[in-house]
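Q: Predict the bound structure with serine.
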Amino acid sequence: MGGELALELVKKYGSESIIATDINPRAQQSLDFCQFEELDVLDITKLEDVIVENNITQVYHLAAILSANGEADPIRTWNINMQSLLNVLDIAKKYGLRIFWPSSIAVFGLGSPQYATPQNPPMVPETIYGISKQSGENWCNYYASRYGVDVRSVRYPGLIGYKTLPGGGTTDYAVDIFHKALQGEHFKCYLTEETELPMMYMPDAVKAAISIMDVPQDKLRIRTAYNISGMSFTPSEIYQEIRKTYADFSISFTPDHRQQIANSWPRTIDDTRAKMDWNWKPSFNLEAMVLDMLAHLPKTAIH
Ligand code: SER
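A: Predicted complex:
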């Protein structure tokens, strides 16, 4: 998501005002439209240097290990996801920064209602990623109420975009499926055909981040993270939508360990509070998203 967000921020504020960072120096190649710093989010000294030297006032802290990859090494996932957030929050407290930090639908668990999942149901996350996001939400709320840190957050569903390949999430199939369709290959889906999950098209995800950062602070009554919704669909529904363009495209379903994670997540999300407090409204449904993906993907070099 970082590259697409940085691009929109450059359009809004100009390239001299935006610095993208990544632990991998090669990321700079795809971020040539703004400034770039190589940065490990766990390196608090360098993080502070970059912020102070460049008079940074707002930080979008997106770096994290996602749900499926996170299960391979839970302690490492916890350390990276939590310590990086604590570093950012502490620097925000010191310099009065405004922070965006994404949470996720992974904060919910088997005990949460699966349809129209409300803002604050019982939440016992099943993945270490979900545990880190839920704890992170509480840290954000704590820094906001105890120190007045202006930190803002939304619970993203699965994000779908054409500019980058997904990185280790449970919802990645909804991006992979487009690549297979375009390459004329069979798609083996790792979830069952009826596994409905909340999803969002990347332009809506970027819009959510920028619009929650623009809202006057007194409108934000939730300082953990807002539920936001885009669309919900099953593997079978997205497949049928793609087949309207690629009639010969074929699919089979072989659930793996990610099925268990998906089973613990909501099917649909109630985002009433985001609508009320900062006028959240997504632009893309399943049909519009599929058409836009199929229009752009063939022209896009994937990094
Ligand atoms: N897309 C993410 C994942 O699957 C959800 O936050 O891990």
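A: The first helix runs from residue 2 to 13.
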